[in-house]
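To whoever is on call:

I kicked off a structure prediction for a single chain this morning and the downstream step that reads the tokens threw a length-mismatch warning. I double-checked the sequence; it's 686 residues and nothing unusual in it as far as I can see. Pasting both halves so you can look.
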Amino acid sequence: MSVRTKLLAVMMLVSLAIMVAGLVIVPSLDVDRGLEADLLGRSNRISMSVVLQRGIADMQRNAVLLQSAVAAGNDPSVALGGLQSARAVVRNQLAFLPVDGNPTLTALRDAIRDRDAQIDALLAVPPDAATAGQLTKITQQLQSQASHQLAAQLERDNTLGIRATTDEFARLRGRLAIALAAVCGALLLSVVLTIFAYRRLLRPLGAVTGSLNAVLTGREPRAGIVETQDEFGDIVRAMRRIQAQAEHIRRIAYLDPGSKLPNRNSLDAELREVRRLRPIDGTHGLLLIGIDTYGAIRSGFGSRLAEAVLGALGERFNELDVLPTQAFRIDADVIAVLIDRGNSEAVTRVDLKRIAAEVMQRFTRPLEVEGQRFLLAASAGGAIYPDDARDPDEYVNVCLEALRLARVEGPGHLRFGERGHTHRLRRHLALTEQIRTGLRQGQFVPFFQPIVDITRRKVTGAETLTRWRQPDGRVTLPGEFIFVAEGSDLIADMTRAVLARACTTFNGWNERGQALSLSFNLSAKLLSTNVMAIVREALEQSRLDPALLCAEVTETALMGNIDDVGAVLDELRGLGMQLALDDFGTGYSSLTHLYRFDVNTLKIDPVLTRAATQSERAQEIIRSMVQLSASLNIRLIVEGVESEDDVRLMQKLGCRLMQGFHFSRAMPEEQFLEWVRAYEAGVLAA
């Protein structure tokens, strides 16, 4: 039964009870009115009988006075007038006397009329002693008869009135008892219906309202609410659906679906709660574990498998038992570990090192996911609250900066943050925004450092180097901003803007008779992005011959996924471009790169160039590199040539292509072409 039906039933039953009580009470009111009319009629009859009796008595008294006046020889007119007045009163009362078939009153009326006719006959002649005596006798008889009959009628009316009143009141009491029973029944029915309404309507309504408020405020609703087959049941079912949806939303908001670990929102809430419960006493630690190989896994195997790997890794984090810890996934490749001992004991950096070591050990164990075997690498950044941070936001930022520094050092490293890191991070973010503004306003421009053929005194090309020309005219070197650009996606926008302008400039020079090649540094960050789109766009806009464009790649950049890097470099070579191996001879130098990648040019690192001025061993290495490049038919360029002595030494070792401050620093485009002409004309020293 629906709630609406229940309410209608309650209202109808209450109305029916009131109607029944009314039907019983109203007839009792009619009984009262009937009794009142009967008693009023009897009272009127008695009153008229009394007046009638008084009138007959007046007739008898005036008849006696008339007899006395006649006997004394006095004037009888006064007595006759009184007699006539009394007769008029009697006639008037007799006309309105309610006989209604009453034999006593009927006989009295007939007797009065007969005596009145006799009196008329006697008064038709002047009164004498005989007439006066007869009048006295007639009125005496009439008074006696009226007194007797009216007394009998009064007794009869009293008896019948009392009996009628008693009977009517008895019937009234009976009906009042029935009415009282009906009212009590209606009241009892109202009480029953009230209890029914409370149990079936009001109490379920209160329970549903309380449960709805609990669901809407995020609390657990009351247990034991029964699903009835009415609107309340519909509300309960809808409430449970809302509760399930709210729980689903809560899981989405606070749980990472891939790793099944709590997410950044959950970590923020946990840190706020810890700070609220222990604002001063007690410390806790936070470790951010950066999964350095996550990007390579996602690129090579796709996002789905990468998330599956994170899910398996999340199970390992949940098994940490070194200290009371809780793991959170706060970014695609960052997992946070919160260490909280409560107020019993402080967390120290020694504890963070122990947990970091445990985590790194778990990372060294291969993961088997969908038949694939993965070996992960990680870096870690940590901090302690409140020693290293004042609030949760600064706490996480300090750890993020520490993680960034650890990643610079390489996989397996742990760095601790401090409040100064937050200041550096803010500077880093501010510089990032300034770079973004500079890119929008075209402040990043190409500068060119010449590459010369010393034997022919000829400029063969130039390496383009990015400079930041500030609005106030200052020129900022890459060392102050390039690490920020490479740490974000800004390096792609910067390379796109500078390379397109450099290619356009060189193509214009070559169209005017110059034969210059252009080299540019290919950031390791771009090797994992769509660098091909940047290069194609620059070539299409500038119409520069691809054979005159050379991409310089450091050997460090080749240490990533060699297959992916090789594919990118092969595509660049497919465009007809040149490929140079930069900083060769130091760091990760490997002859494997010479046959794995179709390299056109080797560039000797300035460190080796400077070492050759003091070390014969370094000279032999350079001489061997000259012979190797000649055998492979590739160009060899010496970087870091800073003096005439360096020029002579490199010539002695067999080098002819050189680049360095001895010739020129990097110059803006408006100066470069003038310098080339001056150098080739012999105006400048070789």
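Update from on-call: the warning came from a stale cache, not from the record. Cleared it. Sanity check on the structure: The two ends are 106 Å apart (CA to CA).
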